[in-house]
Amino acid sequence: MSDNLAADTTDHADVEAVGDLARRVTTNVEEVIVGHHDVVEHLVTALLARGHVLLEDVPGVGKTMLARAVARSVDCSFKRVQFTPDLLPTDVTGVNVFNEKTREFDFHPGPIFANVVLGDEINRAPPKTQSALLEAMEEQQVTVDGTTRHVPDPFIVIATQNSVERDRTYELPAAELDRFMKKLHLGYPDEDDESEVLARVVGQHPIDTLSPVAGVEEIVAARQSVANVTVESAIREYVTRLARYTREHATLGVSPRGSISLLRAGQARAALNDRDYVIPDDVQREAVVTFAHRIRPAPDGDLTGRELVEEALERTTV
Known about the structure:
CATH superfamily of the largest domain: P-loop containing nucleotide triphosphate hydrolases
Domain AAA+ ATPase: 49-190
CATH topology of the largest domain: Rossmann fold
Largest sheet: 5 strands, parallel
Helix content: 40-55%
CATH class of the largest domain: Alpha Beta
Mean pLDDT: 90
Distance between the termini: 35 Å
Radius of gyration: 20 Å
Keywords: ATP-binding, Nucleotide-binding
Number of domains: 2
Structural class: alpha/beta
Strand order of the largest sheet: 3-6-9-1-10
Order of helices and strands: HHEHEEHEEEHHEEEHEHEHHEHHEH
Pfam families: AAA_3, AAA_lid_2
InterPro entries: AAA+_ATPase, ATPase_AAA-3, CbbQ/NirQ/NorQ/GpvN, ChlI/MoxR_AAA_lid, P-loop_NTPase
Protein name: AAA family ATPase
Number of strands: 13
Number of helices: 13
Strand content: 15-25%
Shape: globular
């Protein structure tokens, strides 16, 4: 067997392991979350693609429960931050406290130092506190009083925000929205799914007995395998054309960071399907949830960000 063929076989075996891991986590999460298979898959692929996720919807549809279920499915550290108007940046990042015994300052890490961080109702905190997440989300590190500390690896922020009570919340700045790989919506369940939810939560809630099906080392290895999934130049050019279309038809189009996010999401989607190379279908499957929230439509336009991405997919040649 040639060296190249051996390498290809090894790479495909790695990708199959990633696909198996993704399906295990997805199935486990669906022990708690009913009727949202696509959303669960999107969140799992974001985890494998080194991305962060924003869940936006009306209250009570399971945003927080989805984030908790993903965190419980992986045997890793998990912290929750309940964002409120009086929350301070140091409540997120941590703070230096003077130790009278040693006469030195000791660093007390905040909840940002965890593998999975749930930012619940992130839009209830003022922009200054929201910005405490920016460095960690982009660079996997936190700087407090001039000292930089790395957050754990792997690291993912899953934030929720409700789409009502706009007068009591703060709009997320563009720079923060751009750091979320995907923005997902759950929506109300249909009649059968809601009936199934009610049946499952009578007595003990399934989240209380959910066990991990993956470890930290598996996630780290899977992320590396996803990063090695082949992206041909034709796929890169296709993503570039999609991004340029949004820039030409909106006040604020998709940034290069958004294009990178789409490529990484496409790699994870390919691995989920046991492929070690990205095809246009992977890009198209991930484009709306990866691009739409980054777009600010033109004031005189009649398309939403989502509709503009769908139009870009229709009109952009593969």
